[in-house]
Amino acid sequence: MKISEYKINYSKKNLENSYSKACRLDIECIKPGNVNYLFGHHDTFSDDFINSYQITAKVISQDNISLGNRIKECVLSTKSISKRNTNLGIILLCSLFAQSLTVKNNMNVSDAIKHVVLHASKEDVLLICESISMANPGGLGNHEEYDVTTLPDVSLQEIMRAASDFDNISNQYSNYFRDIFNFIIPTLSDSIPKINDIKMAISYTFLKTLEKYPDSHISRKYDHKIAKKTSNEASDLIKILDGDTRHESWGKNLMSLDKHFKMARVNPGTTADLLVVSMMIYDYFIGLPNQ
Questions:
Q1: What whole-number distance in Å separates Cα of residue 19 and Cα of residue 154?
Q2: Where are the domains of the chain?
Q3: For a FRET experiment, which of 92, 184, 207, 269 has its CA 20 to 30 Å from that of 234?
Q4: What is the DSSP code (8-state) at residue 181?
């Protein structure tokens, strides 16, 4: 049975643990171009991300809270300990999953996510727009039809659909996690037993996701041509890894691409965010191996 078909069941402890575990693995794995425990960016380091998930874990896992308030409280908590936007994408995606678990109905998780998006209140939309404006992510929020800084009077589905062409996170809101359920989680699920190393399996899933979905953060910062080039470079590395059964050499190849991306200031950050919520969902329902 697909994870999207699992029935929702809320457990504060499990939700908090799965969120924290996914965020921790996000830092411990090499995802080329992103901050990891070995190398950061010129303005952010692994401790920034660790502090961010630790301070938001209890907010993410609350049950008696609206989607808009969940997101806003996470953004405010993060801003209290960091001047950088370290986790807006993670907050938006993980909050939607967490919110879906609190729906008082016998739904599967895919339907519950759709329900949350379609039934979000006007207050939710305003709070989410305020949160995006506060976090001030590069290029996100400005659109010829809607602009989050103007607090538009539209539904959550409408504003996310309008942004879906240039933002992969908004796209997951508008298609109810379709790519997460149909591609990213299955890729992770297949990679874990095949590779038999959880961190390498996560790195491999990151590359496969980047190969299939050019990173929207890169597209906004540069253009789609650069984003597509980055995806092609991920594809090239996948071919190398697929032909190398000696997993001990994978680390060197991953680090080489990581160095290349960081020297070029190319950061597939949205791809990493999609992977975090995928790991969170997988761990919540099935459990990621401890390694």
A1: 30
A2: 3-177, 180-279
A3: 92
A4: I
Residue 202 has what pLDDT? Answer: 98
pTM above 0.85, yes or no: yes
Helices (H), the chain: 12-28, 46-60, 67-79, 88-101, 109-118, 122-135, 156-163, 168-174, 178-179, 185-195, 198-212, 216-221, 224-242, 250-263, 269-285
75 phi/psi in degrees, rounded to 5: -65, -45
Span 75-134, pLDDT tens digits:
999 999 988 888 999 999 999 999 999 998 889 999 999 999 999 999 999 999 999 998
